[in-house]
Design goal:
The structure is a homodimer of 217-residue chains. With 217 residues, chain A is an alpha/beta fold. Chain A has 2 domains: 9-78, Arc Repressor Mutant, subunit A, CATH 1.10.10; 85-196, Rossmann fold. Chain A is 47% helix and 17% strand. The first copy, chain A, has 8 helices and 9 strands. Chain A has helices spanning 9-27, 35-42, 46-54, 68-78, 94-106, 138-144, 156-169, 195-216; strands spanning 32-33, 66-67, 85-90, 110-117, 126-127, 130-134, 149-152, 173-176, 189-192. In chain A, helix 1 (9-27) packs antiparallel against helix 4 (68-78) and helix 2 crosses helix 3 (46-54). The longest helix of chain A is centred in the C-terminal third of the chain and has 22 residues, at 195-216. The relative contact order of chain A is 0.09. At the A-B interface, helix 1, helix 5, strand 9 and helix 8 of A face helix 1, helix 5, strand 9 and helix 8 of B.
Chain lengths: 217, 217
Amino acid sequence: MGNKPKVSNAIIRRLPRYRRYLGYLQTKGVKKVSSNELSEMIGYTASQIRQDLNTFGEFGQQGYGYEVDKLYKEINRILGLDREYKTVVVGVGNLGQAITNYTYYYKIGFNIMGLFDVNPKIIGNWINDVEVMDYSKLEDYVKREHIDIGIICVNRENAQEVADRLIEGGVKGIWNFAPIDLVVPAGVALESVHLSDSLHALSFMIKSMDQSSDKSR
Amino acid sequence: MGNKPKVSNAIIRRLPRYRRYLGYLQTKGVKKVSSNELSEMIGYTASQIRQDLNTFGEFGQQGYGYEVDKLYKEINRILGLDREYKTVVVGVGNLGQAITNYTYYYKIGFNIMGLFDVNPKIIGNWINDVEVMDYSKLEDYVKREHIDIGIICVNRENAQEVADRLIEGGVKGIWNFAPIDLVVPAGVALESVHLSDSLHALSFMIKSMDQSSDKSR
């Protein structure tokens, strides 16, 4: 690996939010924005925002702020959204289909090239012009088509094996929806969406609030 | 509000992971586990784990560790998973349907009582024994049925209005899938799943790795 300074996980989480707000400002026709204005919208401090953006270059001007269009474009570039990615979805159940539709619908540069499943009843079906193929062909397909990202929508028991096959095939990143913390080698990016963890965190917050209001009565 | 010590967001994120690993140990028939063993599996330090669990009570025994079944049950209780929640889903597009199916399939105590949409073509349809109702009836329904949680699967533009209606109806929590940071009053729990942010974080990590390996060549 190189000697590029490693960017903290916290910044990686904040960058997409900056992008989201700048995209919103763009649709509203806003041309420039200060770090103070961004701070009021996003909730991070203005100095935090300036520091984050300074990590990647000099985008603002003292006393002027940021040009919205330019900063939006820069953040897209920083996030690697100035290119397209070839992806496959493994596991074409409800969630797999939803993620396929979501990714297709939003046209966000993550092109789903193939869908894979073990269920003979759905192999050969087409979803949004993409064919459902036999899982046994996954690794060959990923190699041949130079797939960048594998999206895992199978159950917990099978998720690590799917990840191993994707990695053998040469993917650079995995977007995991299975409720398990996958193990991947250095050099492969892993991002997980744990829906049940999220729902349980919500449940905890509701419970905590109930208890607070009981005590204050 | 009461004077209960507020639990940090970091602990709220860790608790569902403890639950996930303990559930896994349970399915494997493991009866007891030490904080060191948990640490190796989960990746947090053993002292972090002990400290987190001590926040909620004395669950372990010095030199013995934790009883898996008992700790799993306790964490369920702490997370508020020892009760059932009544939920509604607003926005029955691809994602709304997937979340409905997901929640239905896993039988995890979050019972979907009603689905709501504005599209006359799908109002009156049934998904997993739940009817799609007219969005205009949302607030009345939430009040009448004492709905606990509203799940928002509409687009960015409409999400805040949906949240306001759900809150007027009396929900205690919102599980938000729209790509926007909703504003909710104190006393209402908010948990968001920002799929696009997650995908953009993955993209960033892939890009960073590409650059590292370019430099090291």
